[in-house]
Amino acid sequence: MTSSSPATATTSGFRLFTSLRKDTVGGGLLVLAALTALIWANSPLADSYFALRDVEVGIAAWHLQLSLGTWAADGLLAIFFFLVGVELKTEFTHGDLRSFRTAIVPITAAAGGVIVPALIYTALMVSHPELLRGWAIPTATDIAFAVAILAIVGSHLPKSLRIFLLTLAAVDDLLAIGIIAVFYTETITLFPLLAAVAVIIVYGLIASRFRTFFVDKAWAAWVILLPLGLIAWALMHSSGVHATIAGVLLGFTIPALARRRKGDQGLRPNLAEVIEHRLRPLSAGFAVPVFAFFAAGVAVGGLEGLATAFRQPLTFAIMAALIVGKPLGILTSTWLVTRFTSAGLDQSLKWPDLAGVGLLAGIGFTVSLLVAELSFTPGSPEHEHAKVAILSASVIAALLASVVLGGRNRRYRKAENATLGVGQA
Prior knowledge:
Layout: H1 6-19, H2 23-41, H3 46-53, E1 56-59, E2 64-67, H4 68-94, H5 100-125, H6 143-153, H7 159-184, H8 190-209, H9 211-216, H10 218-239, H11 244-253, H12 271-295, H13 302-309, H14 313-340, H15 351-360, H16 365-375, H17 381-424
Antiparallel strand pairs: 1-2
Subcellular location: Cell inner membrane; Cell membrane
Protein name: Na(+)/H(+) antiporter NhaA
Keywords: Antiport, Cell membrane, Ion transport, Membrane, Sodium, Sodium transport, Transmembrane, Transmembrane helix, Transport
């Protein structure tokens, strides 16, 4: 009988940790966590799921006594948004988005993906003025789920398509959170908001001034930058603004340019790349799956609940806005900005690729569920119907996007194999 040595166990653990840097692995964990929650929330043990989600922990004196579900959505998801900010900073600094002509396209697409679904919902609900308050429900894209689906089905898709989706979804969520702040937040406390901005500025100055130190000393970011980031997050949360905004802003402050080593021996790794490398396994292996687990637990009420919900105009309006409005708004605005301005798509992107991304953007989920809760009284029939509509639309959008992008992925794989075959010949 053989037994594994400590060295072997350590090596296996390291490989598992390293594998979490792959989008496909993180995406698989996210989908598994979401399915587990959905099944649990609609099983005979559903009460235990919701009891777990609603357990409150934290410090009440600091206004941080929150449910586990809220900690996941506002806290753990901020880690993911921080990495989104870091990655976008890199792309805007010296990546695919460094050109304004290229960057403005996904930003405009995001705006179109917010405006058109809102207009479709409003048009369909004009005869139901009591439901018009839900106009912002279909404006949001769930960036974590969208990126996960793209990673699972798009192993050979152009890298620029992921950057396009990241930019689009990040701007989309920022717009949606801005809508929440303006139209759905009763009060925004100015002092903690200004204090949060001040801390973020200090965070960025320290990260920039001592970037080499943070690159060379792995512990330094955890001891110095992490506490500052937590303070900024807590202040942003106290202000009434969605706390994940702090994550994006902190990520944008991380320096993404490399400095030359002494003696002209090449460039040091830049701090953005180093932090992303160190933090991604934590995000992909823990933060995002736990968030998905608490976000996906929507009770649909069985077949009877689904049948009742699908007879409601509210359900139809939300589903139409997400499944049709999102891709329509994204493709139309992208075509307009590339047709009538000097802006242009990345040469590696094709319109069928963008159609798949437009469908992915129909995965509303987290922020959409949040807006639904703010639009209608929790537990009311309207709120329950809105949740069913968001869940159903997100599943349909994910399936349609998987079909389109899966087909595109096979085409790119064949082209790549053909090129390799020619090269080898």
